[in-house]
C-alpha cells in the first residue's frame, strides 16, 4: 500500500470512529489524552520510534513488550476534533511507514460535559 493510500484509508477510519463518538455525545472541543498505538517487531525499533517521537515532541511515547511485538503508545493531550485527530493520526501513519512499524489507530475517553 502506498503512503497516500494508507493516509486515505486512515482518514476514513478516523472519521468513522469520530462519527461513532459523536453519536455517543462526545464533546470534541474538550481536551483529553488521546492514545495513538504502533507496533514494532523488535525492541530496538520500538526504542528508535519512541525516541524519534519524544525528541521531536510529537507526543509522549513509551513502549512495552506485548507477546511477540512491542507496543508503542503515544499520548497527546488535545481536543478530538476531526482536523486535529486526522492530522496527528496522519503523522502516526507516516511515522509507521517511515520506520516500518504498524500504526494501529487511536483511542480516547469520551467527554460529555
Automatic annotation (TrEMBL):
Q: Which InterPro entries does this one have?
A: cNMP-bd_dom, RraB-like_sf, RraB_dom
Q: Which SUPFAM superfamilies match?
A: Hypothetical protein VC0424
Q: What region holds the Cyclic nucleotide-binding domain?
A: 1-76
What is the name attached to this protein's record? Answer: Ribonuclease E inhibitor RraB
Native source organism of the sequence: Alkalimarinus sediminis
Q: Pfam families this protein is in?
A: RraB
